[in-house]
Amino acid sequence: MKITEIAYKLNDRSSKYKIGRLQEIRKQIKGFKKKAGDSIFHDDSISEKGWAFHYGGRKELQFNIGLEDEGLRFGLAFSLEPSQSLPDISILFPKIYKLNCLIREEPERFSSYLMWHWQRGRRSEMTEVREIKPELINNQTFVFFGRIVAKLKIDFDEILTTFDNLLDIYLEIENEINDVESKIKKEIASFDFEFLKRERRLIVNREYSSIEKVINVDIRHTLLQQKLIEELMLEYGAENISVENPLNGKKIDVVVKEKDGYIFFEIKTGSSAKACIREAIGQLLEYAYWGGKEHAKKLVIASEYELNIEGSKYLELLKNRFNIPIQYRRIIIER
Q1: Among residues 39, 156, 180, 197, which is most buried (max CB within 10 A)?
Q2: Is residue 163 located within the same domain as residue 256?
């Protein structure tokens, strides 16, 4: 399948997704008098060489698709190649800085994506998403982060869903009119929480080595999440458990549905119970109360560490003095 056909299919199917409103969103956050067009991709932004970016995206963090040896990539990118529409790449520098800040401040938002770059015609290895280094900032670099699938496994709904999930990152980098940011986000992502029953298996179809299970942070998180889900299914029933339930562009590790409300669980793999609590509290509060609405009746920090007396007193103080319904739960798995 050629890149033009892929781009056209994405355009055709995008009306059911938030990304289908990209040009209207760009009009509002850029203060344009009119939209650049009605579709994500346009003939002028599709190359027969095997890539495409969103129409008008040459000077932006661009939604990008492209054919590579391994298959089709889809995600966000910076193209630091001067052209008629981008004679000076320095216009992208403040945007790269904002992205670097976001990667440092909220690395969990990028944990499900890979990152690589092309420089002087040579491609780097694929890595986790990292801050863009100064040595990459030159006239012959293309930096990408997102996903890649084999050409025979292209799923257009998966691509559009990924674009939807990346839309908040695009907004934070590209918004130029601060007073419309909240308006746009309310239009493209409801602040109302929706319980979505999800049963997909978390552990990938391969055996982890004993060393991986102990030292790999991502694998450790997956194992903890799987164990917690198994325990909660026994306690509440499988029909009342949602895994990675989406909310405002984020994903809650586990949600339990009860008659009188929801319980949000955030799993952490820090170096101690204290570190896990510190990292999880901000996320749980955002999940539960962002937008001025109360989505959860109870918030639970989950990790494999035993909570000591000081930690218990700390959480009790938060509950009693600030009325935050927060708890701690230990998950026990082998090391």
Answers
A1: 39
A2: no
